Amino acid sequence: MARTTPANHYGLAMTSDGGGISARGVRRAFGAVQAVADVDLVARPGRVTALVGPNGSGKTTLLLILAGLLTPDAGHVRVAGYDPAIRGREARARTGWMPDVFGTWDSLTAREVLTTVAAAHRMSRSDGAARAAELLDLVHLGDLADQPAHVLSRGQKQRLGLARALVHDPQVLLLDEPASGLDPRSRVDLRVLVRRLAAQGKTILVSSHVLTELDEMADDAVFLSGGRTIESRSVAGAAAERRRWRLTALDPTGLSAWLEQAGMPVVEIDPATEDDAQPGVIVELDDDTAAAALLRDAVTAGVPVVSLAPAGGVLEQAYLSLELAKGEERR
Amino acid sequence: MSIEVVEVPPSGASPREHRRWQDDWALSWHGVRTVARLELRQRVRSTRWKIALLVWFVVVGGITMLVTGVFSDEWFGDERAMGRTVFGLVVFFVLFLGLLVAPTLSASAINGDRAAGTLATLQATLLTPAEIVVGKLLAAWAAALAFLAASVPFLVFALLTGELSVAPLLSMLAVLTLVLGVVCAIGLAFSAVASKASGSAVLTYLAVAGLSVMTAILFGLTAPLVTQMEEIRVWETVGQGEWEEGQPPACEWSTHEQPVWHSERTWWLLAANPFVIVADAQPLPDEDQLWMTEDPLSAIQLGVRTARSGPTYEQDWCGYGEYYDADGNLVPYESPVQEPEPSEAEVWPWGLGLYLLFGAGSVVVAVRRLRIPTRSLPRGTRVA
Ligand SMILES: Nc1ncnc2c1ncn2[C@@H]1O[C@H](COP(=O)(O)OP(=O)(O)O)[C@@H](O)[C@H]1O
Ligand SMILES: [Mg+2]
Hints:
The complex is a heterodimer. By secondary structure, chain A is α/β, with parallel strands linked by helices. Chain A has helices at about 60-65, 90-95, 110-120, 125-140, 155-165, 185-200, 210-215, 250-260, 290-300, 315-325, and strands spanning about 20-30, 35-45, 50, 75-80, 95-100, 170-175, 205-210, 220-225, 230-235, 245-250, 270, 280-285, 305-310. Chain A folds into two domains: about 5-240, P-loop containing nucleotide triphosphate hydrolases (Rossmann fold, 3-Layer(aba) Sandwich); about 240-330, 2-Layer Sandwich (Alpha-Beta Plaits). Chain A is globular and about 70 Å long.
């Protein structure tokens, strides 16, 4: 009765666009609120694409449209080769969706949550049980497997949600703020897992407003603001770009004086370290080579440098500069 | 910084695609069972449910004991009438309580899940909306039947004391089962339409109250509309009899102009009443017991059948019962007027048919609301 292959049982060939996700001119309004105003996005198989934007910028709404749960008002969407609004079944068979608010069936155990989702994906009972056990190990919930899901902590629920999205081994993964509530250990696990899935050729779209957590995970980034794509770019190659660095020294005044003299104006005092004994100063440097040169010169000149590091992640900087450039305001 | 060039096939490139109906309406046993099992697991493990079942058992048991105590054998002098009364009362209360409980079992099944964020999780799988709705309906119905099952010991007790034959009464239970299923379906539809669980519960209770009470009130209110002045033949007394001498007054026929209620034109209003449907699903009592049964269900059945047969054009205004003649012999009274005959035509199939339509309509409404992708969300709700 139950089918062993979750996906593909319609036997339809995939269309020629090779999978992945593409969205063009997507719009969606809720009454007067234009949640998604105009989004263009491409996420390629084998790559992790970050969906970056402040709260309320329409990330969740866009992911719901891609997951086939919401109708776009306009625009063109393809997920794994299918339009989720017309061939929803085929698209859903190939899509794993992890919602940002994790609702779960209170009285089911973690294992039952996974076997239920497996059954809902038309997997046989034995396949579902095997897959559930495998995934529980993968997200390190093995020893909590037979606890009711509502006793899990937020981070554990989040991991269960990730496992739930993976039950039917989808080609496309839509992860909505997957790292929120995770402890550092789990964040590392998440990053390793996501990279591994990408290496298997899956298309992964990860949304977040915490940019540092995406930095080491993403290959590409799409920036949203006010429901619009304001930029699509690749994350690699940031080392060759002009960006901000934070510099601290035992003697902050001496450091500032030397920088002045060396013709490298201080952009600002890092607000996060303003009240510290050694406040960090922010400078703009062309690339990594320039940073190395600055450090060498400072040490040679006898400035007691303690640290030199990029101020914030690549994405954070790119994002903040975009916001500045566009004069966008946080909603 | 490289800006990606987006390559998307133009929308018009492939022939216009359409949604397939089976993506929404296909039903597989595997899918329905998955949803039903999920729902039942959720419910059965909550302690609230076990307490509710226990309270139910105690209440129905209490009512049975009370009824048996009040209507003791001496009241009837007939075991059969007594058994039937107890049975009728128990079924009546089971229906009454069932109509109170069934809406709570399904009226939050969809909007409750939506609020908890679990509905979208199901919708995002390969389950069709029809499978989700039917699965939830089966689970709610099964829960309602658990309450029915908890009343079975008392029904069996009534059957045994009354030495009643089982078969005819089973039809009443079968109809009761279906009525509860339909109430569950109505609750499910409201929970798909209303955004708040409290809202759908209220709507479902209003619907149930409308069917149980409003139908009867409408039946009463429409009476003047179907009442007209007509001539009827009346068997009435002439002069005074001499009772001391064992001489009752003489009676004779006369005609009177008076209002006549044509209830045969509005009886169908009662057919939509759940109590009528269940009560009428038993065979009419034997002729000799017709006006003797005391349980509410038999009374309701008799009432609706009499309403269906309409007015009688001969009335007995004379009837004084038996009397003692001059010699002290008991003389039975014989009336030339026929007793009003309850109609032999059954009412319940009409009601049950209507209810099955309600049930099917509710399922259709709920499925349509669960189709994805969603175009319009209930106000103030999010998908996730
Ligand atoms: N179901 C809804 N009804 C009304 N407004 C909504 C709904 N969902 C989202 N919005 C609004 O749309 C905007 C985008 O929301 P969302 O996609 O959740 O943003 P993000 O996930 O980027 O934080 C917000 O202003 C939000 O209030
Ligand atoms: Mg969000």
